[in-house]
Amino acid sequence: MIVIVGGGIIGISTAYRIAELQPNAEITIISKDLPESGLLNPFYTSSKAGAHFRPFPSKNEYELRDSKLTHETYKQFKKLSKLHPESSIKFMKCIDYIEYDNKLYESLSEGYTEIVEDFQIIPKYELPNNVKFGASYNSFCVNPHVYMEFMLQSLKMRQRINIIQRKIYSLREVSMIYPNSTIFNCTGNGLLYDGSYDLKCYSIRGQTLLIRPPLENYELCNSRSITYQLSNGEWSFVIPRPLDGGIILGGTKNENLTNDKPIEDETKSLINNAISRFSELFNDKGELDILRINVGFRPARKTGVRIEREVIDRSTTIIHVYGFGGSGIEMSWGAAVKAVELLEMSKSSNKSKF
What we know:
Blueprint lengths: L1 E4 L3 H13 L4 E6 L29 H7 L1 H15 L6 E9 L4 H4 L10 E5 L11 E9 L2 H15 L1 E6 L5 H7 L4 E4 L15 E11 L6 H4 L2 E6 L5 E6 L6 E4 L13 H12 L14 E12 L4 E8 L2 E7 L5 H18 L9
Parallel strand pairs: 1-2, 1-7, 2-6, 3-9, 7-14
Antiparallel strand pairs: 3-5, 4-5, 8-11, 8-12, 9-10, 10-11, 13-14
Helix pairs in contact: 1-5, 1-9, 3-9
């Protein structure tokens, strides 16, 4: 018996990977929220993702290690985008603009260019005003709600899978309900066996706007993803959600806020930052057509993601897969592959950590 605790992008991807390798495996997913019910819940972060793959140069050993998880996802998404366009995965031109001197980007440090295709530095004379560095590359954008529904539907049709919607208070509770099972801990912020949480975990609050672009600019807005890093530390980006899912205009990153409701000043800041950078989103009256204000809490971890096997006793094995911050979509398939490798390795070796 395999039990996956957490029904976000990491839990669903892990179930999908297990099903690929073990078509007859009996899989149970337990989660308080799932794609449909969690769409508007700020603590069900997967559905609030942009979501695209924007690589970045690694600032430390943890970021460099975790960046390799994006490589498997990139390759898998290339396949899915061709075989299953209904998954919403779409590859397109993506652009980075940095409005301040940044040696990590300018020197193309590790983690930035290794996997994306058609990477090019944009000549300085082609850069927008106030931009110090720019680069373009080919990468993916995803409509996360559609993608997760696609994965779940595939699992329901092809696999013996049981989905239980309920809150779990400890992994010990799961082990008592399902003795002699392997538990995949995909709980985001690291729920542990005794009901406590991993002290290295923390949340990064984000706020974005879901926009309907003007009809005359519809194709343009859905053809590329652009990210500006501003000199004051703020971000301004546009990410298309394929299959007519709208445009995400973002975004904020704040470790100190716990407000789960939209903050008016942040909405105003997102709009003001976009006026000079993404004029194509505004109508002829200078207004945005805002469909929804998204608030989400990215489940981050101080020393990077945890992918590790823990043996509690002879009857309970836990494989931890959590702490992905704002990179859950990007790392999802790579994380699933590594986590399921630990499941396979546990049968023949003592290796227990990513």
